[in-house]
Design a protein that fits this description.
This protein is α/β, with parallel strands linked by helices and 291 residues long. The protein has eight helices and 16 strands. Bound molecules: flavin mononucleotide (FMN). Flavin mononucleotide (FMN) binds next to strand 6, strand 14 and strand 16.
Length: 291
């Protein structure tokens, strides 16, 4: 790799407008952004997580702003794979950029079951397999913390699709490098580094967590150095591209993640304040690199 890194525009053999992807859960399926014209410059959209059955999600509050970041406890709310296939993907087919569908499950088999149904659509380029959710059948720890489980999930997905897929790992427990290696062995075409960090906000007056499910996912620009380190470790260990996810708020951050070894860089929480964040990041990058 040469430095400063060139801004990559090719991924999985396709040309992308930019290396900036909209992170899962922060942009729906992209279809609601179409009319707002805020997909300009976006390399790809990653959808909200899709599960086999519809999920109502967690009780409110689902979002809690903290002085330096955001706690979220959405609970994978989504209308289920058949609704997505019939009603959302036909609209999302009109996106001006590629779509990856984020897939979640409660059992190893559910990931492949969801993908098998989604194969009925041509609206998406590939998948992001979210192994950060709890493995209910095996005690509730995230799938991603156990490389053997990650291997089985990736193998299951490989069996039902020829489309590329990234496995999105959790930073909460386990060894991310070992899980990434297992995902690649199972057929993953990329690794997304990483999902949210566990966080909590406790009301000291009554000792209760403000978030009803107690722990939540924490995101913050302050986490960027943690993500940079994980991206650097994983990208040095695996042969497939790494997609970073976490901590981005400036063009400088995107360039740093590319220098750490990421090939694509997701932005999520930033979109809630700045729906045009992707275009802004790309402008900032171009100014910094003179491209
Ligand atoms: C409100 C919200 C919902 C999210 N939903 C999902 C999800 O459904 N699936 C998933 O893999 N990640 C989900 N994430 C995690 C993001 O995709 C991303 O990995 C994380 O927010 C880190 O990026 P950021 O620091 O740019 O926000 C969600 C994050 C937020 C803030």
């Amino acid at each position: 790799m040469s430095f400063p890194p060139a801004i990559p525009r090719e991924f999985w053999g396709h040309n992308f407008d930019s290396p900036v992807m909209l992170a899962s859960g922060t942009a729906g399926f992209g279809e609601e952004l179409l009319d707002l014209q805020c997909l300009s410059g976006v390399g790809a959209v990653v959808s909200k997580a899709v599960t086999f059955e519809p999920r109502a999600g967690n009780p409110p509050p689902r979002l809690l702003e903290t002085p330096f970041g955001l706690l979220n406890s959405i609970g994978l709310a989504n209308p289920g794979v058949y609704h997505v296939l019939k009603h959302i993907l036909p609209v999302a087919a009109g996106l001006p950029c590629p779509l990856l569908i984020n897939v979640a499950g409660e059992s190893v088999d559910e990931f492949a079951d969801v993908v098998r149904v989604l194969e009925g659509s041509s609206a998406h380029m590939g998948y992001e397999i979210n192994v950060s959710c709890p493995n209910v059948a095996e005690g509730g720890a995230a799938f991603g913390v156990d490389p053997q489980v990650v291997l089985r999930v990736a193998q299951g997905v490989s069996r039902v699709t020829d489309r590329p897929f990234s496995v999105k790992l959790t930073p909460n427990g386990g060894d991310m490098v070992q899980s990434a290696e297992a995902a690649v062995e199972g057929g993953a075409s990329a690794i997304t580094v990483c999902n949210t960090f566990l966080g909590m906000h406790i009301n000291w007056q009554d000792g209760k967590s403000v978030i009803k499910r107690k722990v939540a996912g924490y995101t913050s620009p302050a986490l960027l150095p943690l993500v940079v380190a994980k991206v650097w470790q994983v990208s040095n260990a695996v042969s497939v591209p790494v997609i970073s996810s976490g901590g981005v708020s400036r063009g400088d951050d995107v360039l740093q993640l590319l220098a750490a070894g990421a090939q694509m860089v997701q932005v999520g929480t930033r979109l809630m304040r700045r729906p045009f964040a992707a275009a802004e990041l790309i402008d900032e990058m171009k100014k910094l690199t003179g491209e």
